[in-house]
Structure prediction request, 424 residues.
Amino acid sequence: MTRRALVIGGSLGGLIAAHLLRSTGWDAVVFERNDEELASRGVGLGTHPQLIGVLKRAGIDFDESMGITPTRAVCLDRNGKIIVERPTARTLSGWSRLYQALLDALPARSYRLGKRLTRVVQDADGATAFFADGTSERGDFLVGADGIRSAVRAQFLPDVQPRYAGYVAWRSVLDEADVPVELWREMVDLYAFCLPEGEQLISYAVPGCDNDTAVGHRAYNIVWYRPVDRDTLTDICTDAQGRHHAAGIPPPLIRRDVVERIKAAARASIAPQVAEIFARSAPFFQPIYDLASPQMVFGRAVLAGDAAFVARPHAGAGTTKAALDAACLADSIRHARDGSGHGNLDRGLERYQRMQLPFGKALVELNRAEGAYLSAQIKPKAERTAEELHRDIGAVVNAHIGRSDQVGAMVAAHGLDVHVNAPV
Ligand SMILES: Cc1cc2nc3c(=O)[nH]c(=O)nc-3n(C[C@H](O)[C@H](O)[C@H](O)COP(=O)(O)OP(=O)(O)OC[C@H]3O[C@@H](n4cnc5c(N)ncnc54)[C@H](O)[C@@H]3O)c2cc1C
Prediction:
């Protein structure tokens, strides 16, 4: 009899998990709380070979239409002059490009919208998910791929909360058609850093809003990390009606004065080429958090992706980790055997936790270290260490160049490389 997996959360982590479980014989069904497909989350997404490998296992071929590969990593000074330059080869894709490809490859009946999980009830044989619309579903086990504010994690680990890192990421995407032609020509081939004191900005071209990488249809993506103390965070997360959005303010509700201030700050402190693109866009921000769960498996309910661990985005490996969680989960279940030689689900889930828990912790630590300089900016100068006071700009650019090797070494050190290219 086909066994059934309930996957809670229909973003990249949940979709990859559903594909890989299905490829190993499971009937995996995704339940997403939003009423509509999520394709409008049009921001850029850095990839690593391990993500591309797991996508391939999920049946998604990552050809040149999936991303854009700049050839030079540079740092631009306040006047727009290149002060550091290195070769680079990392492919930048778009969140919605990957989402659409994964969604299109899943049978429609296996992706259910408008299903907000409220509670999980489990026994020795399986788990039942209860949804806000009053319905419920039963499966042999349940995957909580429901992100940083996971309802599954809240039920099993109520004390584990995301910890604010002391800075936010301002993000913006502008269609190629809206970028002045000469600016586009100058920037399209660059992975460009701007590093004003205490801040970090990265910008690069990505597939356009219609997921197109053809000339004229691409987009320009900016991620700008800026220290923000708690009082200021409360202020900028408060909308024009005075309502505070503690879990993150939806982009359309960010107050006009907040947006005007950040555009003025861009003009004052970052390279004019990037400030110009930023000023023409509709920027929004995401507070940056660390989150590390001490446990990922609770009987027949498991955590995956950002629900279990949120690493700051510096290594650009959050989706790679979610993909590795999914691949390790599917393989662990498939390979676990009981005395009779049959698949033993509980043993498989135990193995999944044994493999992914240390990897998740290590990735959170790596990114915390990368962001330590930014976190320290909200402390008085006298309390900062030498590294927190001075940043080596060449080292920041070099870290980017070596990023995929670093992630690859970490994956290998945790014995997870077998999951990247394993046959389906
Ligand atoms: C500024 C920034 C830049 C980043 N850049 C990169 C990058 O370059 N490369 C990279 O790999 N990663 C990057 N990441 C990280 C990446 O976005 C995530 O790590 C990755 O997408 C994993 O997502 P997920 O599927 O686990 O969770 P999410 O994408 O958060 O998805 C969770 C899903 O669950 C749904 N959900 C939540 N609660 C419920 C519920 N109760 N019932 C049903 N559904 C529910 C949500 O609606 C959502 O669709 C970045 C993150 C940030 C903040």
Remarks:
- Residues 4-57+95-162+290-382+403-419 form a domain with the FAD/NAD(P)-binding domain fold (CATH 3.50.50.60).
- The first strand starts at residue 4 and ends at 8.
- The chain is about 35% helix and 25% strand.
- The two ends are 20 Å apart (CA to CA).
